[in-house]
Amino acid sequence: MQPTVQQIIDVMAEIAPPQNAEPHDPIGLQIGDRQQIVHRILVTLDVRPEVVAEAIKAKIDLIIAHHPLMFRPAPHLDAADPQQRMYMDLIKNNISVFAAHTNLDETTGGMNDWLADQVGLQKCQPFNPRPKGFASPLIYLGVIGNLPQPQSVRDFAEKCQQLFGVNGLRLTTHEPNKLIQRVAVIGGDGGKFYPEAIQAGAEVLITGDVYYHTAHDMLANGLSVIDPGHHIESIIKEKLPPILQAKFEQQHWQVDMMSSQLNTDPFEFI
Fold first, then answer.
1. Segments making up each domain of the chain, as ranges
2. Which fold has domain 5-101?
3. At 249, phi and psi to the nearest 5?
4. What does DSSP assign to residue 37?
5. CB burial class (10 A; 0-12, 13-18, 19+) of residue 99?
6. Do domains 5-101 and 106-230 have the same CATH topology?
7. What are the pLDDT digits (tens) for 216-254?
């Protein structure tokens, strides 16, 4: 038995409730037909032209992405523009696109828990509550926990580079040899929440895309920061498929699942 796009959206709402998303975050169905039958799903961090080509070749019916396909309305659909042509290729090939972004970040067992587990944090707790207009449960953007044993800031940064599989990362610290154990994690661009990490007791914050002036403020406040880049959220390609597959089996749905094999990180170190 094959589900529809809408039925899979309903499952995703159990995993990453849409009400958890930040205001104005364009989550949900981006392109597609809710009644379309789904045989094959592709899980990806980003939806880029090369990912769409991958999906077309694999005869994918539905792409599930972390980063929304369209953050802003398309001003036109002109095939001369690679971005617009990508939208047209999706429509022509009957490929639906669904995004779970900050609602996946701000849910128990979601993105930040996956990243915290990747670096071996223990006794993890959520921090940085986000007001959502409903009383319960409280929604948090961030996880904080302990390393199994203290280690220096630099040693831990080098370990993060290895565990996240990145060619380089940015380390912001005045004390590279200081022994630390309490670590906060905010996936994506979480630098603006560094005061909340300090308030929660973090000695180190792992987040991406830290701005130059924000990094100076972090240093002034005695916080060390490890920035391995935004692309570490590609962990979705490893973590989400087995969660979905387990839910599909409960419904006796037969859906082929694959993860994008492409690296969509726009940056490289030279």
1. 5-101, 106-230
2. 3.40.1390
3. -65, -35
4. B
5. buried
6. yes
7. 999 999 999 999 999 999 999 999 999 999 999 999 999
